[in-house]
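Sequence only, no structure available. Ideas?
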Amino acid sequence: MHTVFVPTRIPIAGFAAALTLGVSVPSAAQLTRPPTRSPTVIKYGAPPQNVQLWGTPVATNVSWSPPITQVGPGLVYSVQRWLESDPDCCKNQVTGLTTTSWFDEGLLWSGAYVYRISAAYPDGSIGLVDTRYVRPEPVNPSNFRAWQVSAGTIAFKWDPVSGATWYQLTGPGLLMPGSTIAITGMTSYVVKNLPLDTHSWRLCSMYASPRSPAAVSTPISLCPEATVIVRY
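Reply:
I predicted one. C-alpha cells follow.
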C-alpha cells in the first residue's frame, strides 16, 4: 500500500502558521526583487591612429588612419564632438562611417573642443581616441582703406582673408537693410551718391558653411574702420 501526499495550500493569512510548521515562505523583498542581469562588458580594441584636425572658425576637417591591428574592411567609425569646458554644450556627431574622414560644420563658439573617434570591430569591440582641438578665431581684413574718387563716390579696398566666405561692409550709402552689404569674391567696393559729410564704415570677415546655423565673425566693434570726409 502506497501513501500519497497531497500538497497543502497555505493561505496568505496563514504565513505565521506555515512558519510554525517549518514551511519555507519567501519574503516580500524576494517576491518583488527583479531578476538578476549580467553586467554589460565592453571589449576595447586598438584605437584609430594619426588623428588630424584643421579648418575655419565655423567648420573642421577631421581625418584619421585605421587602427594598426585592422587595416582591411569591416570597421565602422563614429565621431563625436563637444566643447571641452562644457561637455553638454555644442555637440555634434556622425555614425556609420566606412571612410576615415569627416567634415564637421557648425562650430559657433570659440574655445577648445574634444573630438572622439570610435572604431567598431566586427567582433563587437570598440577602439576610441579623444583629441583636443582649439577652434581658430576669425581673422579681420587687413589694410582696409577708403578714398573719394569723385563727387559723392567712395572706393574701398582691402587684402583678402584666407578661408573667409564673404566680407560684410557696414556703413552709410548701402542698399541692404541696416546699412550692411555682403561682398563675395571681391576685395573692393564702391559706394555712390553720398552727401557732404564725414562717413565711416567697418569691414568684417564672415565665415560660413552650408550646414552651419549661422555665420561667424569677430564683434563688429573689433572690425577695421575707414573714415572719409566727402567733399564736392
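Residues 120 and 126 are 5 Å apart (CA to CA).
Hope that gets you unstuck.
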